[in-house]
Amino acid sequence: MEEILRLDAIGQAEAVREGEISPRELAEAAIAKIGAHDGELNTIVHPRFERALAESAELPEGTPFRGVPILLKDLGWVQAGEPYNAGSRTLDGVRIEADAWSVAKLRAAGFVILGRTNTPEFGTTITTEPLGFGATRNPYNPEYSAGGSSGGSAAAVASGMVAVATASDGGGSIRIPAAQCGLVGLKPTRGRTSFGPAGGEGWSGFSVPGSVTRTVRDTAAMLDLIAGYEHGDPYAAPALPRPLAEEVGADPGRLRIGYVTSHPRPDVPDEPELAAAVLAAAALLESLGHDVAPGHPEALGEADFAVHFGAIVAANVAAEVESIGAWRGKPVELSELEPRNRLMAEAGRKRTAVEHVLSLQWIDSYRRRMASWWHAGHDLLLAPVLGIPPYPLGWFPQDDLSTAFGRTGPAVSYTSPFNATGQPAISLPLHRTASGLPVGVQLVAAAGREDLLVRVAAQVESAHPFEHAAMR
After folding, report:
1. What is the structure's pLDDT at 471?
2. Cα(197)–Cα(174) distance, integer angstroms
3. Distance CA 422, CA 447 (A)
4. Is the pLDDT of residue 472 over 90?
5. Which of 28, 185, 376, 400 is the most exposed place for a label (fewest CB within 10 A)?
6. Domain spans of the chain, in order of start
7. What is the Cα–Cα distance from 341 to 86, expressed in whole angstroms?
8. In terms of pTM, does the model score above 0.85?
9. Topology given in CATH for the domain delimited by 2-463
10. Among 404, 390, 384, which residue's Cα sits nearest to residue 264?
């Protein structure tokens, strides 16, 4: 059983098809693994093991992921009949009436949903330490954060509980947990995946659904499965030329790749571990035949970006609080929120509609300034995922918001710009600190070019196979 759990999702599906294991046996093995390790890691907030076992016995033949266990992030990814908290006790008692379309696609593909994973309240920080559900711990070192906001999903996949879990990324929330936990994490192009039927967009277009996995081929297959315009969506990503699964192993050609090792903010000191990770990845890409040289979009370091990005997110948090009040039938008092979100909701309420639209327009202009670097002839940008080294639990203190926000800004300087631009970006587990903690490196492509990211990521994985030392 242990050997099968170490397989990726595609490998587990093959084992089921070939009769090596039944869907129920695979679900039971994953549940046993969760029972052995989740007490320490705290990845799952809403298990549904009995229902999952019953469903595993009723799966039709012929589905691509028949019997493969999966976990859903408890932020978005709603499932009919299941509880939903989004990391917040303000939603205690809420039950979902209908599947998100992406969840319906997962179920139709044969996945067995074992439960919902831990996330910070409303996903507004990059560590998973919600006051209502406790901290998720990093499988590589339980004193360290698994990242956020998809930290529960990342810790579960990295520790071997499941091969894949859903995630979402509004400021780095797929890529950062992937980097912290040694996984592959692809943030898709804006509009590639749908928030329907309940929503149209997340955080004014910054957020996008996706997954965390251990292999590039799983990442490609997952995006193939959940991608696609749905009726009523506010926008759609450019069509891909073919399924991303077919890009795995395809020759990416000789690419022009720029890289950055100095922090975009001049007041933030460079970190040797992050520079070492990028330089090693640059050397690897050069050895694979690519043209690699220092260079990045000048707009990456614009000081006004964080002001507008933060204001837009704050307005969305304020709106979410109002929506929760309507949903549960009782207004949310600010005192019910965690201190971080209380402050953000207050700031969002103070913004006028005109100020909000002006910030959105500033981001529109920023998007064009950033895109011009790719338009001028670059294929990919290589950068750190995080602007700081791996961080311990408590590094973003709830009781000292000045320190918490002061540390968050430098941390997300390489991720949040690409939520604003809507470009696809992937985190790859290519480096470890001296103490063995994972450090992710990031490749960013022009809008709509997940195909290029998958080709290059698969090429890198083949040349430098990823290690998953946290699997127990």
Report:
1. 84
2. 22
3. 7
4. no
5. 376
6. 2-463
7. 13
8. yes
9. Amidase signature (AS) enzymes (3.90.1300)
10. 384
